[in-house]
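Quick start: read one record
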Amino acid sequence: MLKPFPLLLSLLLLPVVPVKAISPFSAPAIVAEDSPNAQIERSIRQVTVKITSEINRGSGIIIGKKGSIYLVLTNAHVTRGATTLQIQTHDGQTRTASIAPNSLLKDKDLALVEFSDTRDYPIAKIRAISPDAELDITVTGYSAETGQYTTDNGKIEQTSDRPLREGYSVGYSGDIVQGMSGGGIFFEDELIGINGRSAHPILSNYIYEDGTKPTDAEIQQMRAVNWGISLHTLLTYIRPEILSAYNLPLPQVNPDIETTAYTGYIAELETKAKGFTVRIDSSSKANGSGVIIAKKGNIYTVLTADHVLCENKEESQDAASKPCPDHTYTVVTSDGKTRNIEKSTIIRQEGVDLAVFQFESLDNYPVAEIANYNPNTDDFVFAAGFAKIGQNPSKWLFSGGRIKDQEMGLLLTRQSDLSNEQGAVLKSVSSLTGGYELVYTSITFGGMSGGAVLDSQGKVIGIHGRSEGAGGGKIQLGFSLGIPISTFIGLQERLKVKPQLLTTAQPQVSPQQKQEIIQAITGVIVPNTNAKADIWIERGGQLWRLRRSEEAIKAFDEAIKQNDPDNVYLAWYGKGLALFALDKYQPAIEALQQAINTLPKGEDLKEFHSSILQLQSNVYAVLGGFSTSAGREREARENYEQALTVINQAISLFPNSPRSYITKWSVLDSLERYDEGLAAINQAIDLAPRALWYVIRAKYYFFQQKYKLALDDYNKAIELNPNFAMAYSVRALHYSSQQKYDLALDDHNKAIELNPNYGLYYRGRGVLYRLQEKYELALADFNKAIDINPNDAKAYENRGGLYSYQQKYDLALSDFNKAIDLNRNFAKAYENRGNLYRRQQKYELALADYNKAIDINPNDAGAYASRGNLYSDLQKYELALADYNKAIELNSGYVFSAYFYRGILYYRQQKYDLALADLNKAIELNSNFSHFYFVRGDLYRLQKKYDLALADYSKAIDINPNYANAYYNRGNLYSDLQKYELALADYSKAIELDSNYAVAYYNRGELYRLQKKYDLALADYSKAIEINPNYAYAYINRGVLYYNQQKYDLALSDYSKAIEINPNYAMAYYNRGFVYALTRDFPKALADAEKASELYRQQGNEAGYQKAQKLISMIRQEMSKN
């Protein structure tokens, strides 16, 4: 059988150059025995071993020891195909060795071999960092031809940040021969790599790891040198358990990410961004990025971050007062051309981290389109620029992510440097130092400062500036931060530039584009190779940004294992963030406590300590909310109290963070300690006026019925941030509660204009349209909300409520079912489905849904009130009363409805004093609900307190001028008081408001009949019957009208129809019998009169019975005459 090894070696190492050879057992004679060089040469020789097998010969380096087991590093091609391995050490001893199984995380031309020996052999010193070019080196190994230890000197000639296949990344000079594969590449006595491929091979098989090939020119350069694999590669890809077992050092790596080549829509966006993005290089060796925003003639204007052109800006917050260092700068455009930046063209604004400069060129470069609008939470964005990672050359990065709206984003960061004083600029609204207000999840690095923050259509909405740092700013952990274009627009006069392409239109993203963007974001590769703790922390933060929290936890755990006292607290903090994102609240609290326990002592970490406590308080508060929803009141209060204790600790450590006071307000609000809550929100506003803070306080005032103060705060929020959609949306709810529907509608429309892709705003407007009885418009808005988010359970519940009101019960039931399918714990959907079943008299189903709603949320006062209504319908008054009492006991924001419904129950039980007390209480709690006045007016009318009844009906109409029922009942009251003209006006108004109001037509017909306006009366009775063909009373009274007009056939027809509708309608039989008698049809007359008499008797109507008896007597007398 032919052995393959000569052919294999001919492809890897060529024995063509004479080399220095040393006997395995003799020391070199060219240096003094005790000289430093001799010591180095001896040490590297002692760690170099010869590896032989039945098919191959090579070399290796002893890199570790575990007990009596030694670990040797060599090339995979040295051991490939061998069944037995022999290792010979420097002392000539030979023993059997074996390959360490599953020792590498990735296929490289590396192998780890183990041998056992009780003798003590030296271990190579390992240099864990990647080697630099121009480094003087020594290469070692054993010649396959002579078997002798061989060495030569050389130099690192080439290094590549794009390794070749199998991990080759170090090109170097020096003479090597067959057998030296796996031998060492040393810098002095430190191992920096191993040999593998010689210069000038027969086959030029140079291919990068990603499958691409170098250019022909690059290949010629590669052929001229040997290629080895750096120790850094081994340490990166060796399995952690082997790394730990042999006490090998961790590699020095950068917190880089990998992105796949974009295609389709994302590739178009990236190409657009590359065209207008420039790289700004400094003589300090740093770099930044910039955006071409204007062109006039041959002059281009670039917008960037000020600290890119004045580098000390990054070093401290008071850097604005320092002079810029005397560096020179160049700008590199998309075609690779470099031009000097003339300092005279640079314009900056003190206090805002923005600057512009100009360069001149005859070449044609794209100009960026600028978009001035407030992005909304979870809008897609891309950060574009030239990332400078470690000592590597800068590289282009187009990094997708999601943005937070300007108000919520600043609440989510750890940054506390909120101020409304930005250098020489005093602003009415606060931002982070330098004007930072954009917060987004795109992964960014140094060198990208000054680059664009782009929306999903490639328009520039901000300038990237920095990332949240931790550990003295050395470790990225948190969000990326940028300056909104609105800030630049406000400064354009001072910066003496006007953007060439400006829009305010928000992007519309198609489903296909959205899917491509999501794939681009989720496709980011975060390495999971060996690294030091700080790198694992940054990786964890990157994965957290990408919403890959399970992976983030694993990364943080790797850092925790290393237990570096300088940064392990950050790993615990990051793990707490990731656990919180996964709704694992108790583990999150424990992780954050570990962060506190491991936090190094020092004044400089007080702010970070405060941030940890603030997050921990938020977690406790969320737990309190869950406990409340589950009806575990004691547990909920304990969680809220703990949240309050923790946030107070945060404030005591760092009292100038407005975010802490916002958290404190939220907790105090949950504990119903409203005055203290108000003090907390006031403190936040005093520290840093932001629109969101005012919206929060406005809601607080609103629920305390301090409506003017609430409105003032809503207005202030909009003044501070005119593009804050939420402020308009909540002010609309404020106006709606006060029945100022036109103002409410204007605000809903504005919110939708500012954020046309947010279903909640359409839902809000839909609810308003429903209140205005504009049902088609309401339906369109609910449909739009569902179209935007097909999983919006609340939108289905809203639409179901509308359908239910319109008596489209099948559609309503379908929507309630869908809402419940989407959210099995949606208590309100169960309650409203129960209301639907109650209307359909499916009482068992209704009761089951009410019970389910209460089971989900035992503190849902509305569900108790609704179940109480069901029990009231079933005349189970004690059960109904118990439920109303429970709803009142819960004292929710809607407790007024429980008082109202209990008042209705007392009304039914004719306990009028109790009913009146409850209705009064409901009105006291909610004086703007017209229906409460309407019902109390009915009670007063029943008690013949006509003045009070009239005042309540009028108040109901004043609150809601479109309340048809209130006009109708006031019309009835006027009719009782014989104020017929007023009654007539109210009936007419009710009909104007509701053209299908049959009973209003009927009662107006009665008034017309009394006024002897018979044609008008006839028209109204007929209209009532047209609207409601089963309206027996209307047939009776129209029959009377026909009778008076001696239209007996028509009268008989109407009385017969009334009897058909209600066979027990005594008056209808009496009237028809009377007409039959007049028309001399005595048998039919007698039968009807007797039927009327019997019904009156059964119904206990003595007067009717006597009247029927008289008719019977009259008929019999007439019949006897015949």
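The chain is about 50% helix and 15% strand.
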